[in-house]
Design brief:
This protein has 229 residues and is α+β, with helices and mostly antiparallel strands. It has a five-stranded antiparallel beta sheet. Strands 1-2-4-3 form a four-stranded mixed beta sheet, covered by helices on one side. The protein starts with a helix and ends with a strand. The protein folds into two domains: 108 residues, Uridine Diphospho-n-acetylenolpyruvylglucosamine Reductase, domain 2, CATH 3.30.43; 111 residues, Uridine Diphospho-n-acetylenolpyruvylglucosamine Reductase, domain 3 (2-Layer Sandwich).
Length: 229
């Protein structure tokens, strides 16, 4: 019985190692202008660890862009190499969606897109999708404004919006996504586009539908929202 269990674990271990080695052998694009890590680098284990440790997907790389041009560069490379690409906001997906939901994805970490600016004249805010709900609450509260959103302060804005953004004020104000008035996006082929009710309306409708949308069409730079009701 002990031998049988040992053999079973050995097979599983070899299988996991094979996946890791396969990922390591695949070519990594020569990106420039921002940091990224991949299998074999000392910072890769921490960068690729899932929130739910039951999932052990191994991404091809984890990138940390700082501009929309960087995001476009990554998405275009994924498109040309036929690689799955995903944006990671807070990284709290229980099914490791922030790692692509499978091995060998390009992960775009949005931790450098956390800016929050408020315009008192138009009463709108531009919020980077890497911002956390707690940061948004504090920034808007300083101006006497608020948005509908969830209650977990450390949740990332990008993933929250992608799934609608349910919260304690939803019955009064609706979902967080209902406040969206504009999106800066990078499309699946790397093209940068702006979408609102008046510009690229079909794209805006698809991004503003309150359902998970394809990450290649989602630019983790800024979203515009009405900032009060």
């Amino acid at each position: 019985m002990l031998i049988s269990l040992t053999d079973s674990f050995f097979v599983v271990f070899i299988s996991l190692c094979s996946v890791s080695l396969q990922v390591a052998a695949q070519a990594i694009p020569g990106f420039s202008g921002f940091n990224y890590t991949y299998y074999g680098q000392p910072d890769f284990p921490a960068a690729s660890e899932a929130f739910n440790l039951r999932y052990t997907y191994v991404p091809r790389l984890v990138a940390y862009p700082t501009t929309i041009e960087h995001v476009s560069q990554i998405v275009r490379a994924a498109y040309e190499n036929k690689v799955n690409v995903v944006a990671r906001s807070g990284g709290h997906s229980y099914v490791a969606a922030g790692l692509g939901g499978k091995n060998s994805s390009y992960v775009i970490d949005t931790q450098n897109f956390r800016s929050i600016t408020y315009d008192p004249t138009s009463q709108t805010a531009i919020i980077g999708v890497g911002a956390r709900l707690g940061d948004i609450i504090k920034a808007l509260n300083q101006n006497g404004r608020a948005l509908p959103h969830g209650t977990c302060a450390y949740v990332g804005w990008g993933g929250h919006i992608a799934f609608g953004g349910y919260g304690f004020t939803t019955r009064l104000w609706g979902l967080a996504v209902d406040s969206v008035i504009g999106v800066d996006a990078v499309l699946a082929n790397g093209t940068v586009a702006r979408a609102s009710k008046d510009v690229n309306a079909d794209l805006f409708w698809s991004l503003d539908s309150g359902v998970p949308f394809p990450c290649p069409s989602f630019h983790p730079s800024s979203l515009s929202f009405t900032a009060g009701f």
